[in-house]
Amino acid sequence: MTAVTEAGGLAARGPTFARRRRVLVVVGLAIAVLLAGLYALTLGSSDLSWIDAAAALIGAGESGAVFVVRGLRLPRILVAVAAGAGLGASGTLLQGLLRNPLGSPDVMGVTAGASLAAVLAIGAEVRPLLLPAAAAGGAGLATLVLHFVSTRAGASGARLILAGIGIHAAASAATVLTVARLPFGRLGAAEVWLAGSLHARNWTHVTGVGLALALAVPAALTLVRRLGLLELGDELAVGAGVPVRATRIELLVAATILAGAAVAVTGPIGFVALGAPHIARRIAGQAGVATLLTAALVGALLVLAADVVGQRLFHPTPIAAGVVTAVLGAPYLLWLLHRWGRR
Amino acid sequence: MIRRLGALGLAIAVLTVVVVVSIAVGSVTVPFAQVLEALGGARTSEAHFIVSGMRVPRTVSGLVAGSCLGVAGVLLQGATRNPIASPALLGITAGGGFAVVVGVAFLGLPAGAAVWVAFVGGAAAAALALGLASTGREGLSPVRLVLSGAIVSSLLGAWTAGLLAIDQRTADDVRHWLAGSLAGRDVAAVGPLLPVVVAGLLGAWLLAGQLDALALGDETAVGLGQHPARTRLVAAGIAVLLSAVAVALAGPIAFVGLAVPHLARALVGAAHRPVLLLSMLLGPAMLLGADVVGRVVARPSEVQAGVLTALLGAPLLVRLAVRVKSPA
């Protein structure tokens, strides 16, 4: 990025302006996520005023409100923000790595692999805290298959996505099969989870996804600089001193952990990982760290908004956030395909 | 010729075994002697209710739906000269499913209209996929066509799920059907569809020669006195109609229409007539086989046939996506 800035430095204030804009975008989005989170705190089966919600958040006010806000709504919001950020970041890494605008974990079967592993883990009665690890493992397996297909068979572009859709279909079918074989007592947990719902998230979920993000986000931020060079093509990247193979594998691992952790705590929430990077590139440009941060924040905002819309739209019937993102995101996927074809 | 007869005999034998197993085996165990008694007309037992009331109807539905899917797959692969084409991957199945959910479950059209609603929905979805794929800069490639269809399918699937999330009561009625299940079928629903099915299969048979010519390339086909565009349109129309029947009977079932023609071609070569005949037998064998496995794999509950066909067929899609010879 420094090279770009220096080269553009001759052209007066262009680059500084662009950088200032990126900072503004990131800060603005962070504020938007904060405000949306505060708004979500006031919503629920009993609505609170902004002031009551804020008071309950810091422990003041009546005990009922404090319990509702801190015990029920805050973990739900934090899970939504963390999962959305994980999905947005994961999508950015994968789209860059596969050099493919449709190459996101939800289209390509990575989240479906995570779902399968998580359902298997639910069946094996692992502790909830370990669920993100299991899901990341499943996501990793699906990514490995994809990686194998893309390198060994030389598949790229449309073929790779089609192969990903096949992996998605197989993993989804295996998930349904697994759920059908679950003992009755575990069925409820699996079904709520499969809907992509943020209903009844607790602090265990927050801890799980938080740990995974704390691990993967710093790694993603360091890797994304090298990703920019990879996107120029393998030969140029080697010339710039990037260890191509190692970087690829590290990127895959980071993207997998990010998507797996998100899916593990929310279930499959579609189209966020696909859409957030595109939105981020539109508003922040193609700029490594800034794009990644923007995509993560956009993802967080999307999941949070989907959850709020799902709660309010057909009140009192709640709709899972995953359903909302799918209904709104699917036409976007169609449009992306259309544009990709014309390019 | 001997190879073809052998393959035909094999397919008939497999289908017969699957049909017998489909009537004899289920999530509830009924002794075979009682199954025979029930089929013979003993009306008193619980076995009669299970066998005649449940297993025979779903077997008949599976036979018809499976044949339709197999033949529709052959027609689509022949008409588009695209080995990855199939009713589900071109969006036809999802379009039909979405239309049935909207028309029958929400607008309250009679259940008998399901097949026509599915036809309209399937045709519209296929047209959308085709339009989307032809905007590409390098024109219509096999992979792009199927990719567009798959994405149209995911869009319609998402919207169907959204509709059902809003209306929970309808959802419970429809969800089972949407997963592609043969359970709880009524023989009465099959009867009115039979003329449509017969007409479709007959039309497919008559088109076989023209599809053979098409396989040689459009220019050669024209040289042989064929009309490629007309053949394509008619073949696609029949394929959508047959897929609509399958959707109305069994819900949106994927991958039967993809896998069966490939299996048939592997057995008897590329000529369309034997492939059509074989697919007509192998389609129901695959669908009913998946249905039977679904009945016993998760006792006492059942897994929908569509889930198992996806599990079997999806790896084939991955393989084809990578291997198909064509400019990306």
The percent range for helix content of chain B is over 70%
The CATH topology of chain A is ABC transporter involved in vitamin B12 uptake, BtuC
The low-pLDDT segments of chain A are: 1-12
Rg of chain B, nearest Å? 20 Å
Name of the CATH class of chain B = Mainly Alpha
Full CATH superfamily name of chain B: ABC transporter involved in vitamin B12 uptake, BtuC
Question: Overall mean pLDDT score of chain A?
Answer: 82
Task: Report the major sheet of chain A.
Answer: none
Low-confidence stretches of chain B: none
Q: Gap between N and C termini of chain B, in Å?
A: 36 Å
Order of helices and strands of chain B: HHHHHHHHHHHHHH
Question: How are helices and strands ordered from N to C of chain A?
Answer: HHHHHHHHHHHHHH
Overall outline of chain A: globular
Q: Describe the oligomeric state of these chains in a short phrase.
A: heterodimer
User: Helix/strand-derived class of chain A?
Assistant: mainly alpha
Whole-number count of domains of chain B = 1
Which terms would index this structure?
heterodimer, A: 343 residues, mainly alpha, ABC transporter involved in vitamin B12 uptake, BtuC, 14 helices, 0% strand, globular, disordered N terminus, B: 328 residues
Describe the fold and architecture.
The complex is a heterodimer of chains A (343) and B (328). Chain A has helices at 2-8, 14-42, 50-57, 63-97, 110-123, 131-152, 157-181, 184-194, 203-230, 234-239, 244-266, 272-284, 289-312, 321-342. Chain A is built from 14 helices and no strands. Chain A has one domain (81-342): Orthogonal Bundle (ABC transporter involved in vitamin B12 uptake, BtuC). Chain A is mainly alpha-helical and 343 residues long. The longest helix of chain B is centred in the first third of the chain and has 35 residues, at 46-80. Chain B has one domain: ABC transporter involved in vitamin B12 uptake, BtuC (Orthogonal Bundle). Chain B has 328 residues and is an all-alpha fold. Chain B has 14 helices and no strands. Chains A and B meet through helix 7 and helix 14 of A and helix 6 and helix 14 of B.
